C-alpha cells in the first residue's frame, strides 16, 4: 500500500511591494524539487483559518505548499492595518510566485495556485496573467461583485454608505481608517451577512488567531466592481472549480457561467454551504478531489511503498 509523504513546515516571509507577506512552506520529506501549490484565503481571512489543513494534505501527496497571508492582515506587514486592496492582494500573489520560483528546492516549472472564496476569484485572475503556471484551483470562488452585492441585499448595502463616506474622508486626511465588519448577523451592515457568514468565520478561527472581523470601508466600491470570473476564458492551463450548490455569499449560477468559459476548466459541485468547505466530510471530499486534480497536473513523486 502506498503511504503518505511526511513533511516539514517552515515559517517564511517574502517581499511584496513596500512590505512583506508572512507564510508557511510545507516541504515533503525526501523529495527533490517537488511541484508546489500556492494557497491564498478569502475576504479578510488569514492563513491560520484552515489553509494549513489543505496544505498539509497536499504535502502528504508529495506537493510542496506555500500558504500565505495578504499584506495588512494577520502577521504580515503593511500599514495601516485591515486595508483590503484588490490591487495589492494580486501583487502579493505575484510576489508569492516569484518567491517559489527563486527557491532551489522547488521545481519552478510545476507551480499551481489555489484560492478560496475571495482568493478563489484572485486565483482565476492570477492564472489568467501567468500562463507559465501548470494548474489552478478556485474553491467556492468570488467571481462577480455585482452578483454578491445583490445577494447581500440593497438595504444592507445602503447601511454601509455612512461608514464608507467616513473612511474616504479619513483616507484623504491621513487619519485611521473607518471600519466595517467582514461578517455579521443577517440584516446587519457588513461585507457578508448571510445566516452562515458570522458562524462560518468564527468556526475557522483557531485559538490565538490573528483574524480581526473588520476591514477599512474604502474597499466596498472596488469589491462591487471586481469581476474576476470574466478572466476565466483567458486561463490557458487546467483549472478546477469547486462550487457550492447552496452558496450564500458567491452565487453559484453566476460562478458556473464563468467556469464554463475556461478552455480547460473542470467543475466539481458540492451540496454544502460556502463555509462548510473547510471542515468535516465536505473538506474531506474537496481535498480528495483537489489532490486527484493536482496530481494529474503536477505529477508529484509517489511516496515509498512499504
Q: What is the count of β-strands?
A: 10
Mean pLDDT: 93
Shape: globular
Per DSSP, the total helix count is 10
Strand line-up in the sheet with most strands: 1-2-4-3-5-6-9-10
CATH topology of the domain at 7-145 and 227-298: Rossmann fold
> Percent of residues in helical segments?
25-40%
Summarize the structure in short:
Belongs to the AB hydrolase superfamily. This protein is of the alpha/beta class and 306 residues long.
Detailed description of the structure:
InterPro entries: AB_hydrolase_fold, FrsA_esterase, Hydrolase_4. Keywords: Hydrolase. The model has no long low-confidence stretch (mean pLDDT about 95). The chain has helices spanning about 50-60, 85-100, 120-130, 145-150, 155-160, 160-175, 195-205, 220-225, 250-260, 280-300; strands spanning about 5-15, 20-30, 35-40, 65-70, 110-115, 135-140, 180, 215, 240-245, 265-270. It is globular, with a radius of gyration of 19 Å. It has a domain at about 5-145 and about 225-300: Rossmann fold (3-Layer(aba) Sandwich), CATH 3.40.50. The protein has an eight-stranded mixed β-sheet, with helices on both faces. Strands 7-8 form a two-stranded antiparallel sheet. The chain is of the alpha/beta class and about 300 residues long. The N and C termini lie close together (about 5 Å).
Amino acid at each position: 500500500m502506498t503511504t503518505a509523504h511526511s513533511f516539514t513546515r517552515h515559517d517564511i516571509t517574502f517581499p511584496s511591494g513596500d512590505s512583506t507577506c508572512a507564510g508557511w512552506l510545507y516541504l515533503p520529506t525526501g523529495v527533490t524539487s517537488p511541484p508546489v501549490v500556492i494557497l491564498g484565503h478569502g475576504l479578510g481571512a488569514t492563513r491560520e483559518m484552515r489553509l494549513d489543513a489543505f496544505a498539509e494534505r497536499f504535502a502528504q501527496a508529495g506537493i510542496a505548499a506555500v500558504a500565505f497571508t495578504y499584506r495588512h492582515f494577520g502577521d504580515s506587514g503593511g500599514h495601516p492595518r485591515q486595508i483590503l486592496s484588490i490591487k495589492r492582494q494580486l501583487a502579493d500573489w505575484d510576489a508569492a510566485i516569484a518567491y517559489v520560483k527563486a527557491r532551489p528546492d522547488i521545481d519552478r516549472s510545476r507551480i499551481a495556485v489555489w484560492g478560496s472564496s475571495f482568493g478563489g476569484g484572485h486565483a482565476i485572475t492570477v492564472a489568467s496573467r501567468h500562463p507559465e503556471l501548470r494548474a489552478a484551483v478556485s474553491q467556492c470562488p468570488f467571481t462577480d461583485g455585482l452578483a454578491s452585492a445583490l445577494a447581500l441585499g440593497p438595504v444592507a448595502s445602503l447601511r454601509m454608505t455612512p461608514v464608507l463616506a467616513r473612511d474616504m474622508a479619513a483616507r484623504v486626511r491621513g487619519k485611521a481608517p473607518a471600519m466595517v465588519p467582514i461578517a455579521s448577523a443577517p440584516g446587519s451592515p457588513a461585507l457578508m451577512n448571510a445566516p452562515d457568514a458570522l458562524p462560518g468565520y468564527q468556526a475557522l478561527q483557531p485559538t490565538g488567531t490573528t483574524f480581526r472581523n473588520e476591514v477599512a470601508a474604502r474597499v466596498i466600491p472596488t469589491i462591487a466592481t471586481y469581476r474576476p470570473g470574466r478572466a476565466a476564458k483567458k486561463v490557458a492551463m487546467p483549472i478546477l472549480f469547486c462550487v457550492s450548490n447552496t452558496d450564500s455569499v458567491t452565487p453559484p449560477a453566476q460562478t458556473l457561467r464563468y467556469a464554463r468559459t475556461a478552455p480547460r476548466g473542470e467543475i466539481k459541485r458540492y451540496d454544502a454551504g460556502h463555509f462548510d468547505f473547510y471542515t468535516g466530510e465536505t473538506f474531506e471530499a474537496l481535498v480528495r478531489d483537489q489532490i486527484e486534480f493536482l496530481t494529474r497536473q503536477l505529477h508529484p513523486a509517489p511516496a515509498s511503498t512499504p
